[in-house]
Structures are given as C-alpha cells and as structure tokens.
Design goal:
This protein is mainly alpha-helical and 252 residues long. Helix content is 52%, strand content 0%. This is CCHC-type domain-containing protein.
Length: 252
C-alpha cells in the first residue's frame, strides 16, 4: 500500500517550471503567453492570489508599471488574474493591420534568403492580415510576386498556383536547376532552360497560331483575357502588362 501511495503522489505532484519573463515586446507577447500558461498548467496553480503573484513575477518592471497605471486607483494586487491578462492583451497583443495585405503582396525575397525562409516570412506577414480572402491562393501569389530571381518568377507566373506549397515546390526545382548549372561551370540558367522544365511540370495547351500574350508573354491565352491586364509594370509604371514584356527602355 505504501508503494502504491508513493506512486500516486508522484503522478499527481505538480511540476515546478520557471515562468518566462515578458519584456514588453509586442511581437513576442503571444509566444510568451502560450509558454506562461503552459508553466501555470504544469505547476497546477489554482489559487487566484497565487496566479496573480506568478503573473506579476513573470513581467518586466516597465510592464508591471504599465499595469499599475492601468489599474489605478485600484491596487494591482486586488485585480483578478483574468483582468490583468485582458489589460496585457489590450496593450501588447498585435491586432490585424488593415494595411498588412499590402505588405504581404509587396514582400520581396532578399539576397541570400532561400525559398523556404521566404515562405516562412510570407506566412508571418499573413498572420497580421484581415481575412477572409482565399488564403492559400493569396500566399502563393505573394510568394511568386516576391521571388527575387526574374527568370524563376517569370516561370512561376506561367501557372496559377492554388497553394503556397505548389509554388514553393516548383521554385525549389528551378533553383536546383540553376545551382546545378552553376556547379557545371555554366552561367545562370537562362529562361529557355527554365521554360523547358516548366513545360514538363505543367503541360498546358497552346494556341494554334503560336502567338504570345502582349501583356505577360504567355502563349495559352489572348491579351484581353490575361490576368495581368490590370497589372502595373515595374519598369515603365504603365498599366496593362508586366516587366518581362515591357518594351520601354529603362531611364538613366
């Protein structure tokens, strides 16, 4: 009986876990709150006063000062745990930003950043967007438009990817081709090589006349039905086509 009691005591005994400290950085608030609640759950703290005490001991001095000001004239130790959490969320929890969608679709892959890391960046920005829009397709578009390599981006634009993973898969394949050519002593993969690979990945019917769209360079549709007819060119700033088919000379 004694051994059984010892075993039961060990399985029900609370686990003392050091609580993380929140320093007032809004971008870290939600992660901190998840970890803090996990520590509270493992410690099995149920008493209201003890919960308040643990919370206050897990906040930096400036954050506690903010709470004191918010609670005034009421003493902060007389506030409930839920009241203090609500005050923290009002001040530090990031709210969806109305302009976050613009940041999402204007995001650009920087030099030295892999496709995988850029995909993570896109998902992070998307967390601040106000939905609903078709999230999967929106992520794929933002990823494609933000790809730094012009040749890879041009090939990605040949397909309307329904999800980020599909766009990322093709981008990785195209990056692998370029790296393989570089190791072989060749210059950066040209557009014809990437186009050949793209045709293998996405077999698409072509127009019998063999003409290309003057808005995007595609060969499977007419200009009046092109999805880029409302796009603003990055080179000449005119509406109706994209940069890779622009005939305007760059300004010096």
């Amino acid at each position: 009986m004694g051994d059984m009691a010892d075993m039961t005591d060990k399985t029900t005994r609370p686990i003392i876990v050091p609580t993380p400290t929140f320093d007032g950085s809004p971008e870290e608030f939600e992660i901190w709150l998840i970890r803090f609640r996990c520590a509270m759950r493992l410690s099995r703290v149920a008493d209201e006063k003890k919960k308040v005490a643990m919370l206050l001991c897990s906040l930096s001095l400036p954050v506690v000062g903010m709470l004191i000001a918010r609670c005034s004239p009421k003493d902060i130790t007389d506030c409930t745990y839920d009241e203090l959490i609500t005050l923290l969320e009002k001040d530090y929890k990031p709210a969806p930003l109305p302009l976050a969608e613009y940041q999402l679709f204007n995001a650009r892959q920087k030099a030295g950043v892999s496709s995988s890391d850029f995909a993570v960046q896109i998902c992070t920005i998307a967390a601040s967007c106000s939905w609903p829009i078709d999230r999967d397709r929106a992520l794929a578009i933002a990823f494609t438009m933000g790809i730094r390599n012009d040749e890879i981006r041009a090939q990605l634009l040949e397909s309307d990817h329904k999800t980020l993973n599909l766009a990322l898969e093709q981008a990785r394949q195209l990056e692998s081709i370029q790296k393989a050519c570089s190791r072989g002593g060749q210059r950066s993969t040209n557009s014809s090589e990437l186009s050949s690979h793209n045709q293998m990945q996405h077999q698409r019917p072509k127009q019998t006349g063999g003409s290309t769209c003057h808005r995007c360079g595609g060969n499977n549709h007419r200009g009046d039905s092109c999805r880029f007819k409302g796009e603003t060119c990055r080179r000449c700033a005119k509406i109706g086509h994209i940069e890779r088919v622009c005939k305007s000379r760059p300004k010096h």
